[in-house]
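Narrative summary of target 7.
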Amino acid sequence: MTKEELLEFEGVVTDVLPDARFRVKLDNGHEIIAYTAGRMKRFRIRTLVGDRVSVEMTPYDLDKGRIVYRHKDERAPATRGQARRNFNRRR
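Modeled conformation, tokenized:
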């Protein structure tokens, strides 16, 4: 395993912590503390409790990780843009 090689896992966000950190329960049963990747912050991708996410971890510290992707869910609520399109202004 090379130094640059990262481990990638999937899990569910169980808790939102201060300072843009999250507690994530991985599919293998472990719980870790994860932060959002810079690209997710840049594009303002919000992560909430119950969201399914992909996490990158280094093999040197298996208690911390970086959330790199929030999986889309079919039953997720409408986005702000969709809600705005359906809004009828009173005249």
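DSSP finds two helices and five strands in the chain.
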